[in-house]
Every structure is written in structure tokens, then in C-alpha cells.
Design goal:
115 residues
């Protein structure tokens, strides 16, 4: 796994507890907490890969997909893949959690200009 795909590269202040990390990350990206009941580091890293996906190089994206596809839960795997690809290739605003501070500020400025 690439070193970029880790909780350390997310702009969130997260607890050291894996359970708390899973709880907060599931809320951020809109995944039901029930899908992460027995989750561990693999699930945390897979959610990080989902959030960071659109900012990764092509090689890192391959690594991220390999990581996500290694999950044992087909439902969680499917949801994370869909979220990563939708936010990357269809509309970044569908994955507001994947947007950088600059992107969010530009979007806010645009909407303030329009209104």
C-alpha cells in the first residue's frame, strides 16, 4: 500500500481508537456503521483510500482499488468503490468529503456570487 493512503493524510482530528475512527469516518462518507461492526485497520485504510482516491496518481489509484477490493464484505467493498469512482469521475460534489479546502472555498465563493 502506498504511504499516501493512511489516516495521517486526512484533514480530520481522529481519536486513536480504531472503533472511534471507524465511527467518524463512516459518518463522514455516509456509510452505515453496521457495515463496519467488526472493522479494523483494513476497513480504516479502505475508507482513507476512498476519501483520497481522486487526489492520487494512476499507480496510487490502482493500489487503492486493490486495498478496497481486499475487503471481505462485498457490500462495503461495493459502496466504497462506488463512492470513490463517483467523486472522481462523475461529480466531486457527490463526495464533498473528498474535496480539498481550496475546492470547498471556491465552491462556496461561487455560490455566494450566484446568490
Amino acid at each position: 500500500m502506498t504511504k499516501l493512503i493512511s489516516i495521517a493524510n486526512l484533514p480530520y482530528n481522529l481519536s486513536a481508537s480504531r472503533a472511534a475512527q471507524l465511527s467518524v469516518l463512516s459518518e463522514i462518507i455516509g456509510i452505515k456503521k453496521e457495515l463496519l461492526k467488526r472493522g479494523g485497520q483494513l476497513e480504516i485504510d479502505s475508507i482513507c483510500a476512498t476519501i483520497l482516491y481522486r487526489h492520487l496518481t494512476q499507480k496510487q489509484r490502482v493500489d487503492a482499488m486493490v486495498l478496497i477490493r481486499s475487503l471481505s464484505s462485498p457490500i462495503l467493498k461495493s459502496k466504497l468503490i462506488t463512492k470513490a469512482l463517483d467523486a472522481t469521475y462523475l461529480n466531486p460534489q457527490w463526495g464533498i468529503w473528498s474535496m480539498t479546502n481550496d475546492e470547498l472555498q471556491a465552491d462556496k465563493d461561487f455560490h455566494e456570487f450566484i446568490c
